[in-house]
Design a protein that fits this description.
The protein is α+β, with helices and mostly antiparallel strands and about 230 residues long. It is built from seven helices and four strands. A four-stranded antiparallel beta sheet has the order 2-3-1-4, covered by helices on one side. α1 crosses α3. The longest helix is centred in the middle third of the chain and has 19 residues. It is extended, with a radius of gyration of 25 Å. The two termini are about 30 Å apart. About 5% of the residues have low confidence.
Length: about 230
């Protein structure tokens, strides 16, 4: 289990795949897992070949002065993090039902399809089954949503935070709703913008959103997911 040697293309490719859907190696904030992985690389990955790994590397680099204070076990090697070699076998009884299985189950609700049943009973059963399926199809499942608290860090205390927020809120994505925000002191007069937002999980990628916010390079140094939970 874990990452392969980052000095090889295979190892960096594994890192690229891992951070494609993640901001950090483990969890929702920077940790010793990121520090160990960062130090194992000889330098930033090639952005043309490994754009997500490059983005992760540049983001973690902004924490270099805080490496020693980040949470986690600094003695663990970077190879202890990353993907598992194999996924656990799903218990058959917990496996999701197939469309055919669901249809068979629906059929059972309205009696068997025994050849011996008379035509009137068979017709009634088919009408009930058709009505049930129509009602079932009409029930739309609510979209899965998450509420996210994101920290947006400026370059220094002279950064125009009002303009930073205006630029950030100008980002419009289907399934994204901006919420309340506030300025939180960091150090040396620098304040970060902390904003709440709600996203539809199937429509909005948090990594892509962070990249768009960080695209405002005149104002934004980096972004972090401070908290995230399902609604």
């Amino acid at each position: 289990m874990g990452f392969a040697d980052f000095l090889t293309d295979a190892g960096v490719s594994m890192l690229e795949s891992w951070v494609t859907t993640r901001s950090y190696i483990s969890g929702y904030g920077p940790s010793q897992a990121d520090v160990a992985s960062f130090k194992a690389l000889p330098g930033p990955p090639k952005v043309e070949k490994y754009p997500h790994a490059w983005r992760w590397y540049k983001h973690i680099a902004s924490y270099q002065s805080e490496f020693s204070s980040l949470p986690g076990d600094p003695s663990k090697a970077y190879t202890t993090y990353g993907p598992e070699k194999s996924e656990a076998t799903l218990n058959p009884k917990d496996a999701p039902k197939t469309a055919d299985a669901e249809e068979e189950e629906d059929d059972d609700l309205f009696g068997s399809d025994d050849e011996s049943e008379d035509e009137e009973a068979k017709k009634k059963r088919e009408e009930n089954l058709a009505a049930y399926k129509k009602k079932k199809e009409g029930k739309a499942k609510p979209a899965a949503k998450s509420i996210v608290t994101m920290d947006v860090k400026p370059w220094d205390d002279e950064t125009d935070m009002k303009q930073l927020e205006e630029n950030m809120r100008s980002i419009e994505i289907d399934g994204l709703t901006w919420g309340a925000s506030k300025l939180v002191p960091l150090a040396f007069g620098i304040k970060k913008l902390q904003v709440n937002l709600v996203v539809e999980d199937e429509k909005v990628s948090i990594d892509d959103l962070q990249q768009q916010i960080e695209g405002d390079e005149d104002h934004v140094q980096s972004t972090d997911v401070a908290a995230m939970q399902k609604l």
